[in-house]
Design a protein that fits this description.
Length: 206
């Protein structure tokens, strides 16, 4: 079976299970006054909304078997050894006339045995009108030693002349082939001025 069809089948079954227990409602989190609240997870789940289907276990953990990038705590998405979905979300405030830039660290372990199943991490930003935008995707085939830093600029929909809110989401979908968790740590949001090209009037011809 091709990977795309396997992905669709797993995602459909997981989303159906999530809907059955009412976990797919729009995330309701308190907005951070600036940047990300509890960005390194050292305060546990404070500032984050979490859910896990069908596991119901804690996603934000200080398990020393899988070290954090810094400190002791991190988010561990997937890797349960069964088909399912994990998700963490947080609402952030984007100041007026600023371009939001998301940075985080991710570690994708190498599965054992080396036969790959299907495991995917997706990072999304949901605009004030409810439209989700995919920012980053990773799969188990992107595994590497240690943590890797990822930085992404949010699209134009998140730039406004007025302050607005957005929801940042990290979620994983995986099957039962291998235990491959995605570890997320040290999430940050920076806001920069929008750069624009200077305007040069056309030359006048006489």
């Amino acid at each position: 079976m091709k990977a795309i069809f396997r992905k669709a089948r797993i995602a459909t079954s997981v989303l159906a299970a999530a809907a059955a227990v009412g976990l797919l409602a729009a995330p309701a989190a308190q907005a951070a006054p600036a940047g990300i609240a509890n960005p390194d997870f050292e305060a546990g789940a404070s500032g984050w909304n979490t859910f896990s289907v069908p596991f119901g276990t804690g996603i934000i953990t200080n398990d020393p078997a899988l070290p954090a990038h810094s400190g002791s705590w991190k988010a561990e998405l997937g890797g349960h050894g069964r088909a399912g979905m994990d998700r963490i979300t947080q609402q952030v405030t984007i100041p007026a006339l600023r371009v939001p830039v998301l940075t985080f660290w991710v570690h994708i372990g190498t599965p054992s045995p080396a036969t790959f199943g299907y495991h995917e991490l997706t990072v999304e930003a949901t605009a004030p009108d409810g439209t989700p935008y995919t920012l980053v995707t990773r799969t188990n085939k992107d595994s590497a030693s240690g943590y890797q830093q990822v930085t992404v600029t949010l699209p134009e929909a998140f730039y406004s002349s007025a302050e607005q809110h957005a929801v940042i989401s990290f979620f994983s979908v995986d099957d039962a082939a291998n235990r491959v968790p995605f570890l997320i740590d040290d999430v940050s949001m920076a806001y920069r001025l929008k750069l624009s090209r200077p305007f040069f009037p056309p030359l006048l011809k006489f």
